[in-house]
Design goal:
Layout lengths: L1 H12 L36 E5 L2 E5 L7 E6 L7 H14 L2 E5 L17 H11 L2 H19 L4 E8 H12 L3 E9 L14 E4 L8 H11 L4 E2 L19 H21 L2
Parallel strand pairs: 3-4, 3-5, 5-6, 6-7, 7-8
Antiparallel strand pairs: 1-2, 2-4
Helix pairs in contact: 1-3, 2-7
């Protein structure tokens, strides 16, 4: 796991000023004009789902419990936020998914007022103790899937994640066989080498704060053909769809609406 924390510290701390290699937009499916007619995100949104407990793990779940396809939403290091809950709610409403957002950090996320962190080592320690995939988060993801398989008779699972949650989604697509598809939204510390290990189709949605993900995408194309995608947002900073996104800015709203449309259509193709 050492490589993960080194990369995370570099990419996360400098994401506000770091700009990756300029990439051409090479999508398998560009967002259509009908996206502009769909529900846009709101700056003063109040989540419509509810919370329940799976052991000591709190889970936010979208309102409609009748859908038989489930998406796991992996938030960013700032934990529960109305921005990411709103995206979950819209995906559920517009595309017919049950969406759950586990509180992996157990109500103690990274303090958004301390970012960039005054002491970078503190952030690395935080990820080590609360956000480590192998020691903590993997078990949570598997427990959530097993609950819905056993108690709700659901067999179709996808995962999407923001920033840190993009790394979690990548590991899930590598190590959790039940994951049928994954979407990475401005992901942190995902390496191009990991593409070789991925066992599910993916859609990559980097911002200008991430490095060049086209090599990752090319590997996905070799494995899954057109059933994968890449859309780079060079006019958006890292975090634009997460807790630090400005959902009152018109361009940010447009880009987040596109992200929702891409994500929903991609999962709709891959989950039965």
């Amino acid at each position: 796991m050492q490589y993960f924390f080194k990369l995370f510290s570099v990419l996360t701390i400098f994401c506000q000023v770091a700009y990756g290699t300029k990439e051409s937009v090479f999508d398998s499916s560009i967002v259509g004009n009908d996206c502009l007619k769909k529900k846009a995100v709101e700056s003063d949104y109040i989540p419509t789902g509810d919370n329940w407990q799976l052991g000591d793990l709190n889970i936010y779940e979208t309102r409609n419990k009748t859908f038989n396809r489930l998406l796991i939403a992996a938030y960013d290091i700032f934990g529960y936020h109305n921005n990411t809950k709103q995206i979950a709610d819209i995906l559920a409403e517009e595309f017919g998914f049950r969406v759950v957002m586990p509180d992996f950090f157990r109500a103690v996320p990274w303090d958004i007022t301390n970012f960039p962190p005054k002491n970078p080592q503190d952030l690395i320690t935080f990820i080590n103790t609360r956000g480590d995939w192998e020691d903590y988060v993997k078990t949570d993801v598997i427990n959530v899937i097993n609950h819905y398989k056993t108690n709700e008779n659901i067999s179709e699972f996808g995962i999407f994640g923001f920033c840190w949650g993009g790394k979690i989604s990548t590991r899930a697509a590598i190590e959790v066989p039940d994951i049928k598809a994954a979407v990475l939204i401005h992901p942190s510390s995902v390496t191009n080498e990991e593409a070789e290990e991925v066992n599910a189709p993916m859609y990559l949605l980097p911002s200008r704060g991430e490095g060049n993900m086209l090599p990752f995408y090319m590997v996905l194309q070799e494995k899954y053909g057109s059933n994968c995608g890449h859309r780079r947002y060079d006019d958006m900073n890292h975090g634009f769809a997460g807790a630090r996104g400005n959902f009152s800015d018109p361009l940010n709203i447009l880009r987040v609406t596109e992200v929702i449309d891409i994500t929903g259509n991609f999962f709709d193709r891959n989950l039965n």
